[in-house]
Amino acid sequence: MSTSLWEEPEKFEPKRFLSNGRLLKPEHFIPFGVGNRSCMGYKLVQFVAFAAVGNLLKEFDISPINGAAEIKVPVGSLALSEDPYQFVFSLRN
Fold it and tell me: Which residues on adjacent β-strands are paired with residue 91?
């Protein structure tokens, strides 16, 4: 919220993270914080996500649908198409 780092820090302004149509992340922007002021739930989310993905991979074979178009996500892109990935989940034997 420092006025020396941000222009109008109290104002919601997503455009401050764009430059020439590209995503820009200033070095002083640390969304989850660091040290004593870091996000309390960050590690919990990491563990839950790891457990969820691990359990999916343990129970299912995941493969692309035959004939599905290859998806290429540009680096730095936050937006995906409405139906970007098409996979088949089949139970492992």
Answer: 60
Question: Parallel, antiparallel, or unpaired for β 22-23 and 18-19?
Answer: antiparallel
Which pLDDT tens digit goes with each residue over 45-80? 899 999 999 999 999 998 888 776 676 666 666 666
Name the E strands within the chain. Answer: 18-19, 22-23, 60-64, 87-91
* Helical (H) or strand (E) element with 63: strand 60-64
63 contacts 88 by C-beta, under 8 angstroms: yes
Ramachandran region, residue 20 (left: φ > 0; alpha: ψ -120 to 50; beta: rest) = left
pTM of the model: 0.47
% helix / strand / coil in the chain, to the nearest 5?
25, 15, 60
